[in-house]
Write a structure and sequence with these properties.
The chain is mainly beta and about 750 residues long. It is about 5% helix and about 35% strand. About 45% of the residues are buried. It has a six-stranded antiparallel sheet, with no helix packed on it. Strands 5-44-43-42 form a four-stranded antiparallel sheet, with no helix packed on it. The chain has a four-stranded antiparallel sheet with strand order 10-11-12-13, with no helix packed on it. It starts with a strand and ends in a 47-residue tail after the last strand. This is Sortilin-related receptor.
């Protein structure tokens, strides 16, 4: 039996560290590889040229760099042996870290807890339980703690056993508490307002009520009944409500529940909260099972008496509309993956147990198929790449039977928000410099992601290091075992095999340093590896004298500092958490200057332009041939310019799809979707016909080939006119008289061609 640590970021400054006791689990040692052209300044270097350039400059770089090693700045052992931990970095140039360790019973309730604080970036910790509760002789049980999103120095700890809230306004320098008022409430979950630091929502499952406090828990007001534990409640998101004080919640009818007809209705309340401000959000929505609020969208799932399941969408807080998802298969459930600019990505579980990914246009109503047979289990193998707009990596089942259970898996990449997917190009050389015999489509690079049995790093990226992606993968026609560690420096277009085996990894100093250490799939270790050139070469550092099994490589969210904390257990047999903090600042001899940076352009290898989603983006990057300090206050310069439109700026319109497993084919009429014929409407003489394409939501291109793919006006009672063409175009020819543009959501037939959006990037 051994321990496994699972790490998940769960909000601003808060990281979740969960240890599960697993029995007889295979160690899962894996192996991987590296890759292709790299953009450095003017254009692309092949890997061979890049390494040659690196070696030529190695001597002078070594002479001007400090020869110092990183320093182990602290080591601390949590002597309680608890299995779970919550870690919070205060951020905002603070060195304060809180760690809550705890055990739970089989129902998930805490049986023992300890609260620790570090004021020096994890070099040392102090148990501060007594500071919170000096008058109570018995230790308290903390289920969790809550952090104000507007003030990371403000923390709230709730002790449900003593009906008391403990809080600090200054990172634990001073603590105070409030008894629950009224004392009869017993909330089990809380949510801070995103705009008002002192406003908190709380839900009590014992009496199925929601309470609100506007004075940091000093007093509470009951605002809604009949809200059970399975029903969600949410603050509205900033920017979508005029005053930021709207609450959304599902409420059930107790009489219906008594009759076994359990459904809920969606209500809202505004400040000052209470029945006098409550109203049903959209009476036409009626009974439903669940809702989810994200950006401009509210999604609701509804099941009819015949067990047909439907997705409904509210856009910009307008009334709900039924989502139009083109498929002949029944729906079983929905997962809202995430939203990009003016687009929703929804995963649908179909009858038969398989999952497809669908993309919407701006309103979230009209969806098109993006990817069939997405790998979904207890997690989802779909990863949005931070720092590069429109890039995602996904795992797909490759099946020739209805059953996906034993189907092999392949990994795909999209650079345009899921409009087009492609295999991932293998590297030219392996980690030892030997040529790689792997050519798509018969052979490509595949990654272990979140559903992997080995629960590795997943696909790692961060806004602070745009272009850098780290993942474990294998080469072949599909994913296999024994992956190695790969790095992409250019947002996923090319890859490089960087280390053999299984590692936990993170970045520091805005991507200036990459840290990797053997994770729990390997033998215990005393050594970590670090790279100052984005993984082209590695140095080793002994971070501890006694070997450790590492479960987490954690740094402050934002990756601005040079400190990393390694969480694990010592291989001597102790089951206490140990954290070792390593400071990499000594490896720098100087701060970076203007000459240490170059302009990098994210690019799409399917295009001969440097454009992604209709814009050319120039991002400042540090040269890989220098190892200088970016610094905590470094602000990366980014410039945008609008591109002309081409084929890569468009995806299949509603009612169209790429046939079969063809990743690069034309969008053709989907036989499973029956579109209305606008000419059936009496008096209609012209209508807007689709070319089978629509501009990808969030794409800002202008001109160019846009008119070849845009909807066009056609006449009824005759063959529709051909879409506009030019002498040199290769425009798609999949027009049909029974298609309307997905921009038109009303029942009225448009009589003019819609104008394409040309808004700028954020």
């Amino acid at each position: 039996m051994f321990s496994v640590l699972v790490l998940t970021v769960i909000g601003s400054g808060l990281a979740l560290a969960k240890i599960e006791r697993l029995q007889d689990r295979a160690p899962g040692i894996a192996e991987l590889t590296w890759e292709h052209p790299h953009a450095v300044g003017d254009r692309y270097f092949t890997q061979e040229k890049l390494l040659s350039s690196l070696h030529e400059k190695q001597g002078q770089r070594d002479r001007r760099q400090s020869s110092s090693q990183p320093q182990q700045s602290g080591k601390f052992e949590f002597l309680d042996g608890y299995h779970y931990g919550l870690i919070h970095y205060s951020g905002s140039e603070s060195e304060v870290i809180f760690v809550l360790t705890f055990n739970t019973d089989r129902y998930g309730y805490p049986t023992a807890t300890n609260l620790y604080k570090s004021a020096d970036y994890g070099r040392s910790f102090e148990n501060i339980e007594a500071q919170l509760n000096p008058e109570e002789p018995d230790p308290l049980l903390w289920r969790s703690f809550y952090v104000s999103p507007g003030n990371l120095n403000m923390l709230v700890f709730a002790s449900f056993e003593t009906s008391r809230i403990y809080y600090t306004l200054n990172e634990g320098q001073l603590w105070d508490h409030h008894d629950f008022d009224p004392p009869t409430i017993n909330p089990r979950s809380m949510k801070f307002s995103p705009t008002e630091d002192n406003w908190i929502l709380a839900h009590d499952p014992t009496n199925e009520r929601i309470y609100v406090s506007t004075n940091l828990g000093q007093s509470w007001k009951m605002i809604a009944e009949n809200v059970d534990q399975s029903s969600d409640y949410q603050w509205d998101e900033p920017g979508w409500d005029s005053d930021g004080s709207v609450i959304y919640f599902n409420q059930f009818d107790p009489e219906d529940r008594d009759r076994g007809n359990y459904t809920v209705s969606l209500f809202t309340q505004r400040y000052p909260f209470g029945a006098e401000t409550q109203q049903e959000f959209d009476p036409n929505l009626g009974r439903h099972e669940d809702f989810f609020l994200l950006g401009p969208y509210i999604f609701a799932q509804k099941t009819e008496d015949n067990d047909d399941t439907h997705l409904l969408v509210s856009y910009n807080r307008q009334p709900f509309q039924a989502a139009q998802i083109p498929t002949p298969y029944d729906h079983r459930s929905y997962i809202v993956s995430h939203i990009e600019e003016r687009q929703a990505l929804v995963i649908v579980q179909h009858e038969g147990g398989f999952y497809n990914l669908y993309l919407s246009e701006e309103t979230g109503v009209y969806f098109s198929l993006s990817l069939r047979d997405l790998v979904v289990d207890y997690a989802i193998d779909l990863e949005r790449i931070d720092g590069v707009n429109g890039t995602m990596i996904a795992n797909q089942y490759v099946r020739d039977t209805p059953d996906v259970t034993d189907a092999p898996i392949r990994t795909l990449l999209t650079l345009d928000n899921g409009g087009n997917w492609e295999l991932i190009h293998p590297p030219d050389l392996d980690v030892y410099g030997n040529p790689v015999n792997c050519e798509p489509p018969l052979c490509s690079l595949h990654f272990d992601m979140d559903t992997s049995a080995y629960a590795r790093l997943g696909v790692f990226s961060t806004e602070s290091a745009p272009g850098i992606i780290i993942a474990h993968g294998t080469l072949g026609d599909t994913l296999s075992s024994n992956p190695d560690l790969y790095i992409s420096r250019d947002g996923g277009v090319t890859w490089h095999e960087t280390l053999s085996g299984s590692y936990g990894a993170n970045v520091l100093d805005h991507g200036g340093i990459i840290v990797a250490v053997n994770d729990y799939h390997q033998v215990s270790s005393t050594v970590l590896k670090y790279s100052c050139n984005e993984g082209l070469s590695w140095n080793s550092f002994t971070f501890t004298d006694s070997a450790m099994v590492i479960y987490g490589v954690i740094t402050e969210p934002g990756e601005h500092t040079t400190n990393v904390s390694l969480y694990g257990i010592e291989s001597s047999g102790s089951r206490n958490w140990v954290v070792v903090t390593v400071d990499f600042d000594p490896i720098f001899s100087r701060d970076c200057g203007d000459d240490d940076y170059y302009d990098w352009l994210p690019w799409d290898d399917r295009s001969d332009t440097d454009c992604i989603l209709g814009s050319s983006i120039v991002i400042e990057r540090r040269n890989i041939t220098t190892c200088c300090r970016n610094g905590r206050d470094y602000v990366r310069e980014t410039q945008y310019s609008i591109c002309e439109c081409n084929e890569e700026d468009f995806e299949c319109d509603y009612g169209y799809a790429k046939p079969g497993e063809d990743l690069s084919g034309l969008c053709v009429k989907d036989p499973d979707v029956e579109l209305e014929d606008p000419c059936d409407n009496e008096g209609t003489t012209t209508y807007i016909a689709s070319t089978g394409y629509r501009k990808i939501a969030g794409d800002v291109c202008q001109g160019g080939d846009e008119r070849l793919y845009a909807p066009y006006e056609a006449e009824c009672c005759r063959t529709p006119t051909e879409p506009p063409t030019t002498a040199t175009n290769t425009a798609p020819t999949t027009t049909t008289s029974s298609s309307t543009s997905s921009k038109w959501l009303s029942s009225e037939t448009p009589t003019t061609t819609p104008t394409s959006s040309s808004g700028g990037k954020k």
